[in-house]
Amino acid sequence: MTWSATARGAQQPDNTAFTQQRLPAWQPLLSASIALPLFFCAGLAFIGLGLGLYYSSNGIKELEFDYTGYPGTSNCTVCAEAGQGRAPPPRCSCAWYFTLPELFQGPVYLYYELTNYYQNNRRYGVSRDDSQLSGMASALRHPVNECAPYQFSSAGLPIAPCGAIANSLFNDSFSLWHQRGPGGSYVEVPLDRTGIAWWTDYHVKFRNPPLVNGSLALAFRGTAPPPNWHRPVYALSPDINNTGFINQDFVVWMRTAALPTFRKLYARIRQGNYTAGLPRGSYRVDITYNYPVRAFGGQKRIIFSSISWMGGKNPFLGIAYLVVGSLCILMGFVMLVVYIRFQDQHDEDEDEE
Amino acid sequence: MNVKVGDIIKLENNQFVAADLLLLSSSEPHSLCYIETAELDGETNIKVRHALSVTSELGEEISSLAEFDGTVVCEAPNNKLDKFTGVLFWKDSKHCLNNENMILRGCVIRNTSWCFGMVIFAGPDTKLMQNSGKTKFKRTSIDRLMNTLVVWIFGFLVCLGFILAIGNSIWESEVGDQFRTFLFWSEGEKNAVFSGFLTFWSYIIILNTFVPISLYVSTVCSDTDGVFLSFSILMDESMEVIRLGHSYFINWDQKMYYSGKATPAQARTTTLNEELGQIQYVFSDKTGTLTQNIMTFKKCSINGKIYGEEQDDLGQQTNMTKKKEPVDFSVDPQADRAFQFFDQHLIESIKLGDPKVHEFLRLLALCHTVMSQEDSAGQLIYQVQSPDEGALVTAARNFGFIFKSRTPETITIEELGTLVTYQLLAFLDFNNIRKRMSVIVRNPEGQIKLYSKGADTILFEKLHSSNEDLLTLTSDHLSEFAGEGLRTLAIAYRDLDDKYFKEWHKMLEDAHAATDERDEQIAGLYEEIERDLMLLGATAIEDKLQEGVIETVTSLSLANIKIWVLTGDKQETAINIGYACNILTDDMNDVFVIAGNTAEEVSEELRKAKENLFGRNRSFSNGHVVSEKKQQLELDSVVEETITGDYALIINGHSLAYALESGIKNDLLELACVCKTVVCCRVTPLQKAQVVELVKNHRNAVTLAIGDGANDVSMIKSAHIGIGISGQEGLQAVLASDYSFAQFRYLQRLLFIHGRWSYFRMCKFLRYFFYKNFAFTLVHFWFGFFCGFSAQVGKKYIFFL
């Protein structure tokens, strides 16, 4: 055996905390004296948190109105009947009257809600061209194949914006009128329609194509609007910062919802006399009824809601915390009883561990 | 370098050999060539090869070498490194070739300035290449569990996909159909059923993340079910990374680093770490594993007289024999364990010139395979392949019979100051079946003598009938030696007359030249000449227990790990060592010894032992003892639990051969598995492997084999985990092993620290892995119910949810 003298010690492993697995480590021994207080503490903390969440959620006021127009529900029935089986449905208006007995604490948000509407269906969700929406000139003329059958119009022109999502843009519109005194005239409540989309969507993800001779309309020349649209995309709004692909209603619609029942923000009420909220009095919402949902059993709702630090109304989170917290405390008591009852045997068990 | 078969190539000192060569000539006298085979078998001692005398005349004359037109007929390429058979036909004569004439690819030429060789095998036919890539693929039980789990999970995945596909069909026809205004049908899928079909595959893709499929799917022939192909789908790469880390922790462990030889522990496979924590059976070799394998010549019995009896550690140190050759002694390979022999009588006998004593020592100096070398200071260094031989030759050297040098034809020794050269006529080598080796030499007076040493059981059968008295006496001495845990060898010689030897030698040469059944013929001839031997005596060599063996064995049994010792030693030696290292203890309720010589005897003994065992317990186990029929099935748990107390089984190789036959295999297994300890003595390497296989195949247990020598390789390979001790006996065991370290006691740390931690960590990882996969993936399943089963990915909406 020739174990050379120079090799001696050379192969000796390093004596470091890592190689010798001596790094400090801590593993809780879940004995009763640790586990029981842990359960009680966690339980109390969860109940506290749950109560907080529940009450702040309950403090949020909501006012909701279903204007789908199923027979006998509202005066929108007329519109619903009129639109039955006709595409595109005729322009129709209806209204919702409501009275606020007291101040509706602001800031007030106006949402519309659709039910049984599958924006989350995969075939629906992929039917869009993000590069077109980001203003790329080439994509404007050549929408991706995922957009089919809303890729090219029957005349062979590229559709802008292409795809099923854009084609199904929600096109009801609302205006809010306030009657200050009984019998008085209605005054329009200013609705802030800007700032309803995500900042990143509005500023980054959605961009208009480069203007041609300072005109957006020229930039979109040679494209066709989606078949369901009444007007081209550059005419969605007269405001140059809110038209084309960066129209905020459009941007909001294009961020598809995760569940078949969803709300989308329509406007915020925070201007003029309404910064503090909606004051006491009678109100009327004028609804332009365009969007057909009865064909697939969907519903349309309009919602006024205030918000809190935790966002919109969502009692579930608070309830979930309350339930888990209570369970923790309950289990804590059960284990405490078990612990006291069987303490003697318990000690032996611990030794085995 | 286009080396082809038949080419003659020149090699120089310190060069690697490029192909398997037949040595033709070399620069050294007698055309010797020294090689180092470390790359081949891991042994670092220098070995010698020699050319045939006819070819050695070729010298380095390029022209005559170029004219060499011999024809070699040889065996087909194989992977046996220590065997070669062939015949060289040249100049109308026939010369037989064996391994001694071959230089194999992978060797390094040492101490030889040049040599010429003819290529016999090249490229993939070389023995080195034939040996490579034959490693058996070992997998852990976690891997196997994982494979079944993966199949189940895959089934689960298909079920989910199916449910969602049906859901999709229903949704498309019930809900989606009314939603056409916004959700068109695209061409070619205007059919709810077809949509469902597509959805099925979409969901298989989306949900596949919870099947822990790795990137590769390997097909492995399962060895138990023959040709059955099993698709073993292995775990994610991350599992392998964790295992690699654990292997590094083993390599890095300072507590498994043996400073004595500067060897750290080595995890040679990275895939078995967690299995280390699951070991239930340890199969251990004795020599070199439990013991140090540092042999010291302790005692001998010469002509019926024991020498070396009086062991007084300090008293007689001053007039010890060890200073006889101070110069040699200081360079002795084992100089730090200076040779000590505590008996003046032997020296006196030598001085008095007792012929038997002289013959005894002469035999020790002649009959061995040791190579001598002189180092720069002109001192003798012995290159030994087995430490036993080293101990014996060193002993002879210290008593004045100094082995000096050897050539293929001569051995030179210094007998009490005078140089004597013996002509080496034949060398009958050692193997595990013969268990003996002999040399036939002609001394300067012209007498031909056969010197033989070997296992007593074998050698005693070959003695001349006139040895009766001496035989009984020596046998008593041997049992006495064995009782002290010493390794014993019997020593005998035979005078041969010239004529008889010449006849025999002729037959041997014929046998060598034979092409078929050559080995059998040679073995027969060896048997023929090794008879009517005259007994000289016996030697006893001590092999000390390794440090920490007792503690390790104790903790292994505390952990309910069963220890089986498989050794080639005598029964007495084995039992003795067993007691010494706590494998056998005095508190054991019973020790069964199976030592039958026929199948009937063995089965009878097994039956009795069983009756004894189960009968004793039947009285208080109240029918919990399993019925005969069910034994096989319930062996695992029930029997073991009903048997109380410690039992041990000792069985010898002879009986084991019968017991391993299918008929009584189960009896053996049943009995052995109830016993806390099993000692198998006198077993061959093959039997070692058979025993391991027996337990491995019939008990659902994880086995570990640990050994250090070439004879343990088969056992190491067949066990779930093989451990090689990098010790005295070369490196074959280490090369075949999965883990290697230098001392038996490190087994404790390997199993109880590394094995346990690896298992814990792996299990934690896997549990988390599955939890994570399911948590992430089942979300999609749930979301399917909300998105019309349309294979939409829910994570996209994480901010909205």
TrEMBL record, chain A:
Keywords: Membrane, Transmembrane, Transmembrane helix. It holds the Pfam family CDC50. One of its GO terms (cellular component) is plasma membrane. The chain crosses the membrane at residues 34-55, 316-340. Its main location: membrane. One of its GO terms (biological process) is phospholipid translocation. InterPro entries: CDC50/LEM3_fam (IPR005045). It is found in: Membrane. PANTHER family: CELL CYCLE CONTROL PROTEIN 50, CELL CYCLE CONTROL PROTEIN 50B. Belongs to the CDC50/LEM3 family. This is Cell cycle control protein. The lineage of its organism: Eukaryota, Metazoa, Chordata, Craniata, Vertebrata.
TrEMBL record, chain B:
Its EC number is 7.6.2.1. This is Phospholipid-transporting ATPase. Mg(2+) binds at D285, T287, D708, D712. The chain crosses the membrane at residues 149-171, 191-211, 769-791. PROSITE patterns: ATPASE_E1_E2. InterPro entries: ATPase_P-typ_cyto_dom_N, ATPase_P-typ_P_site, ATPase_P-typ_TM_dom_sf, ATPase_P-typ_transduc_dom_A_sf, HAD-like_sf, HAD_sf, P-type_ATPase_IV, P_typ_ATPase. It catalyses: ATP + H2O + phospholipidSide 1 = ADP + phosphate + phospholipidSide 2. Pfam families: Cation_ATPase, PhoLip_ATPase_C. Belongs to the cation transport ATPase (P-type) (TC 3.A.3) family. Type IV subfamily. It is found in: Membrane. Its main location: membrane. Keywords: ATP-binding, Magnesium, Membrane, Metal-binding, Nucleotide-binding, Translocase, Transmembrane, Transmembrane helix.
